[in-house]
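Final report, Chapter 2: Outcomes

The project's central promise was a pipeline that accepts a single protein chain and returns its three-dimensional structure in a standardized token representation, suitable for archiving and comparison. That pipeline is now operational. To close this chapter, we reproduce one record exactly as it appears in the project archive, with the input sequence first and the structure output second.
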Amino acid sequence: MSTKRHFAIFTTASLPWMTGTAINPLFRAAYFAKDGDREVTLVIPWLSLRDQELVYPNKIVFDSPLEHEAYVRSWIEERIGFRTSFSIKFYPGKFSKEMRSILPAGDITECIPDEVADIAVLEEPEHLNWYHHGRKWKNKFRRVIGVIHTNYIAYVKREKNGQAIACFMKYMNTWVSRIYCHKIIRLSGATQDMPRSVVCNVHGVNPEFLEVGKLKLLQLQNGEVAFTKGAYYIGKMVWSKGYRELLDLLSKYENKLVGLEVDLYGTGEDSDEVQKSAERLSLTVKVHPGRDHADPLFHDYKVFINPSTTDVLCTTTAEALAMGKIVICANHPSNEFFKQFPNCHIYNNEEEFVQLTLNALVEQPSPLTDMQRYDLSWEAATERFMQAAELNLPISESRTHQTSKSALPAFLRTRKLKQSLEDVSAYLHQALSGLEVARRAFGAVPKTLQPDEQLCKDLGLVPPPKKKRLKLKRVT
């Protein structure tokens, strides 16, 4: 067997869905495997054709997992500039229209053979485990690390009966994370507090953005005009992503921001309403369809304005800083990591927002140092991950020996008691998640206790056994 550590990275989404849990785990897998010191498997959801049509943009669909894998590899290799060496496996998934999320079908721990089950990285461990029914992660893997991407509590509070739902979800997230993970990494303090957790940004930026930043620095050093456009914002066009806050600020302070022009880029459910709100302003605010932030169209903007406070760690903010732009954002836990960069201008109130915006339009960005550029990279993010997950420490392979309670020291008896309580808690979760009526009551997609026949056929899995119908004989 290989002496290398094996990392299995499970995530809740996949390209071509351009969402954070599709993109960032993909970059993580590529950079974990880059130097060849680790064996890495990225485990992503496979959807039926019907669900693909609901989820993936621009009518992109795949007839087979091999076709899907080729698309994913092509996308990442175009951006990182080296050939990927990680494996890709698919787990059966179902799309929930109500949650706008992909949920696992069946026991996804089976994707990794027992003989290589070493370290599991669960991107969104709460999401992956709300309805998990199968092998206990800690029993299969020697180390299980959860990475919290999404502030689900903030989103559900906006819904009908949001406070009650948020209270229940907070408890559920804590429960499943505690019983299935050894360690939790929260990308920022904007996430829910979790047991055995640490706050650390373990994400980097696409190296394309760092190259743009180097080019802009060279232009400035040569006395050229590096930035010819003003301010912009890019993000999914839904009110909760900061559009409401931004348009309210621009509306309230139109008289002080005379001459400001802002371009908004995004596609989403609220695009039409955002367009109408922008048209009512006396300021020039143009609304455009969403585009890839790496598009050359964005290179010449100087100021990135991001008032959102629902993000956990805004990827586009990191990308804008990497490109050498000035970023204006709110004093919020989600932006804590960015405060170290001189081009990140934080406002505490509306008046500061106005002043920082006016200043940014006339001043030049500060050049990034080599260290600041490195801190934004995926190489640095990988180092932070290893340290935060405590994977730079030796992990004992020995099993707990059977010893009588009287022979155990007090701290070991306490640890054993906690383990027993956790086992009972895991058993309770397994019992509930194994009942179809309970699963449906808590929002699971119907009949996802096992993958259906089509998913099994697509993935080459053994189809679930068909239930035999009882034939009743007619009595004459």
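Archive annotation: Confidence is low (pLDDT under 50) at residues 396-406.
This record, like all others produced under the grant, will remain available to the consortium after the project formally closes.
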